[in-house]
Design brief:
Protein name: Peptidase S74 domain-containing protein
Strand content: 35-45%
Number of strands: 49
Oligomer: single chain
Helix content: under 10%
Number of domains: 4
Organism: Chryseobacterium edaphi
Largest sheet: 14 strands, mixed
Length: 579
């Protein structure tokens, strides 16, 4: 026969009751020992018999028993719960439920019906009802859980708000703290149909009842995962490993894998589902069907900046780094007919493949429009390109172009030879100090006139020479230069009326003259029955020329009336004061 020892505040034998440490009035139970502490450290000892009648024992003022003594004596209790001395009551209870095989060290709900629950901690599984096979360690873990099963939690306030949840693992303080809401089938099927289909096949794990799922099949390892109030309230089939992550995600956390610390959204109400994130300190705004692997030693990065980023539904992978595969890890394809594809890429870096035969040599149909040959085309020592009678040959430094029997161009290190027909050709050779041109006609001829554009070393045309030998009333350049480098101008003026004094003003006709390079004069003087060229006539008449004036003098008569002269023609070549 074994007794249970209970520490109480006071005993009232007449009323057949006692006051426990929680100031609750309780009735005596059979085979219990009640210890009433005294100020000197001793205690009064009261014992109940099998009928529950209490009596005080003498000599029990101070027990010298320790725990070992009690165990050695084989003492035990038929009570399923022992409440330790505490003013918090059942918060410090150690108990076992023989019907459900539930164990607890704390205040698990004693009225639960679910089996095989283990709860260690204050306010741990204190609302559990039909939920089964939950194992929790830590104060306030799964405090609100009622029907959920198969959950494993370790850490302060892990899964604190969940009421229905199944098959979750929460390890770390505040892990899964904000999760609380059931998930409608239509909501999960909209964002992650694959997860919805699997969870419908596993109603025992997911809590599926035909319209809703529990927050289920999640694994959180790390402190403060989904721990703040702005994190998701619904989670399904998500694995999160890493401290302080997944905050600020909008209320859904469906079918995600996140490994790394500090992966969270800087902007509240971001979206995330069907994604795989591996790395630390990655900013995750609106990650949908994404893959991101990477981290940065200097700053937080967005998922798109990770060294590997993928769009899962599109089967598209972006590598934000040079891609290198050492040669020793690649098979040797040289001469291997099994390798029939070539890798090609778009300007944005997207890889693709094409048939190997499509890129060997120049395509038979020619290059595509806008894609000309821009690199080097290498021929063998002797090669030719032929089309009918047209042939281009390459022969180790010699190039020849031929069309028909008598039209050809030959280029080699010593000669360039062009022939058209049997009589017309141009020959340039290292053995000659000149260019030989052959023609049966007028030689080299031009279809257009180029004289207006001639430069110092230009070859001239006949028309140009003819123009330079002609005269004009208009001022024109001769094409020549004076000794000071200035251009030479030419103009011809004919005077039909001569002033009486013989002084002809040239300024209206020749402007800005600096130097007279040459002159030609012709005078018609029929009053004297003469016409002469030059600036004097038989030492009787003299013509003096200055840039501003021409002066005619008749020596025999200084008062001669020069208006009797019929005409005076003057051609000047000159330079100007300004260019």
């Amino acid at each position: 026969m074994k007794f249970r020892e209970i520490i109480v505040k006071s005993i009232n034998i007449e009323a057949d009751n006692y006051i426990n440490v929680n100031d609750e009035v309780k009735s005596f139970e059979p085979l219990d020992i009640y210890l009433v502490p005294k100020q000197n450290g001793s205690h009064d000892r009261y014992v109940t018999d099998e009928e529950g009648i209490v009596s005080k024992q003498d000599g029990g003022s101070l027990s010298t028993d320790n725990l070992n003594d009690v165990v050695v004596r084989g003492n035990s209790t038929t009570k399923n719960e022992i409440i330790l001395a505490s003013n918090k009551g059942r918060a410090a209870a150690i108990g076992f439920n023989e019907t459900t095989y539930g164990y607890h060290f704390g205040d698990m709900n004693t009225a639960h019906t679910g089996s095989n629950n283990v709860g260690i901690g204050y306010n741990t599984l204190n609302n559990i009802t039909s939920g089964a096979s939950n194992t929790t360690v830590g104060n306030f873990t799964l405090s609100s859980l009622t029907e959920g099963s198969n959950n494993t939690t370790l850490g302060y306030a892990a899964g604190y708000q969940l009421t229905k949840a199944s098959a979750n693992v929460f390890l770390g303080h505040y892990s899964g703290f904000n999760l609380k809401t059931e998930i409608s089938e239509s909501d999960l099927a909209t964002f992650s149909p694959a997860a919805a289909a699997y969870m419908k096949e596993q109603p025992g794990l997911s809590g599926y009842n035909g319209t809703t799922f529990n927050t289920s099949l999640n694994t959180y390892v790390g402190g403060a995962i989904n721990g703040n109030t702005s994190g998701p309230t619904r989670a399904a089939m998500s694995t999160i490993i890493g401290a302080s992550t997944l905050n600020n995600v909008m209320y859904r956390n469906f079918n995600n894998i996140v490994i790394g610390a500090g992966n969270y959204m800087k902007t509240a109400n971001s979206i995330m589902y069907n994604s795989i994130i591996i790395g630390n300190s990655i900013n995750l705004p609106n990650q949908i069907d994404a893959l991101a692997i990477g981290l940065n030693r200097s700053r937080r990065i967005n998922a798109q900046e990770a060294i590997i980023y993928g769009e899962l539904p599109n089967n598209r992978l972006l590598i934000n780094a040079p891609l290198t595969i050492p040669a020793q890890y690649m098979p040797n394809a040289q001469g291997d007919a099994a390798f029939t594809k070539n890798l090609v890429a778009k300007p944005d870096g997207t890889f693709g493949w094409e048939e190997k035969s499509n890129s060997e040599g120049i395509p038979l149909t020619g290059t595509q429009i806008g894609k000309p040959v821009s690199g080097k085309i290498e021929f063998s020592t002797t090669a030719s390109i032929e089309s009918g009678t047209a042939v281009m040959r390459v022969d180790n430094g010699y190039i020849s172009f031929k069309s028909g029997s008598s039209n050809n161009i030959t280029v080699n290190p010593n000669q360039v030879f062009i022939r058209q027909g049997t009589e017309k050709y141009i020959n340039m050779s290292n053995e000659l100090d000149k260019i030989i041109i052959g023609s049966t006609g007028s030689g080299v001829d031009g279809a257009n006139y180029y004289g207006d554009s001639y430069e110092e070393n230009s070859f001239v045309q006949k028309k140009y020479i003819d123009q330079k030998s002609s005269y004009s009333h208009s001022e024109e350049t001769t094409g020549g230069q004076w000794i000071d480098g200035k251009p030479i101008y030419k103009k011809t003026v004919k005077f039909d009326t001569i002033p009486t004094n013989g002084e002809i003003d040239l300024t209206p006709h020749f402007h800005d003259v600096e130097t007279i390079v040459s002159n030609q004069m012709f005078t018609e003087w029929y009053h004297m029955d003469v016409a002469f060229a030059g600036n004097q006539y038989r030492s009787k008449a003299f013509i003096t020329l200055q840039p501003e004036m021409a002066k005619i003098e008749y020596v025999p008569n200084i008062d001669y009336d020069y208006s009797l002269i019929n005409s005076f023609t003057l051609t000047l070549e000159y330079t100007k004061k300004t260019l």
